[in-house]
Amino acid sequence: MTETPKPTAAQLDLLYSEAEEDLRAAVRSLLADRADPQALLARIEGEAPYLPGLWDALAGGIGAAGLLVPEKLGGQGASHREAAVVLEELGRAVTPAPYLTSAVVATETLLALGADEGGPVAELLGALAAGEKTAVLAVPLSTAPGADPVTDGPVPAVADAAAADVLLVPRADGLYAVPAAEARITPQVPLDLTRPLAVVDTTGVAGTRLAGPETGGAAVRRGLLAGAGLLASEQLGLAAWCLEETVRHTKERHQFNRPIGSFQALKHRMAQLWLELVGARAVARAAADALATGAPDTELTVAVAQAYCAKVAVHAAEECVQLHGGIGMTWEHPAHLALKRAKSAQTALGSAGRHQDVIAALVDLRAPR
Questions:
Q1: Which end of the chain has fewer CB within 10 Å, C or N?
Q2: What is the pLDDT of residue 366?
């Protein structure tokens, strides 16, 4: 896949390209075959919710893990727009896969270090792009862009740490790559069982120093910004599935000899969701495009996308559970997985309130007295 050209402001187009739609079709087909809701429900309460063979097929077979990595380093040379499409589909299926944490946050962090001259960064990027390894930034899932986290002792709530081969550890003297096998990783019980959390302790483990504190800190901030921007696409995909599934159910479910979807009150609720979804798609695509093109207002665009999409995903998931009635409350229906993912993602990589504060600061919007 050749590198996506960077459009100028006059050429900006947030519509999906033909290549992006082809990628979507490939990922959706793979998930339908290997990660259907029943297969997922059967595994989520186990110690390893990750579906066997799925990551190899997604990362290596389709090449999704290397979308952000240049071709000269073994990747696909694509952009954040394509990665956003993958996350939309993973969000639709609430798939337990370390894509956001490894193929986006960790990969973007490494790319920000510069790997043109080879060395351990280039070697690790090549392994991540090929799907041979996964890496996780060892910071709490709630860490927002702009933060300067420093690991000193056990770090709680590190997402996908149990599936990682390498941990990227920000320390006071720089950023380190630590083999996950040498760290102490203690699983935690998360709200969202499809995105496992763990306490990570790398105390006493030397690791490989990748960058000094200034360069490493900037790289971590870049990785978190990319993660927050593309998390909006995952939330968009989740919200889209919730609305589609709710519309389907209300067409098929009958009361008083008519589909419940024909009742005016339910029509209004689903129409409201559709309007919110349209807005979410616009801001999520804008965030992905801003990251892909290096737009000067990327930080603002990402903050807007997160502040909006997080709330839309939760609302859509809540309506999905409620409008399914009794079946929506059961463990056998996947609606609860969507709701838990939406609630968990609402505080991931910064809460909506934190992103609203960023927006206010960037546009000089003063709080009321």
A1: C
A2: 77
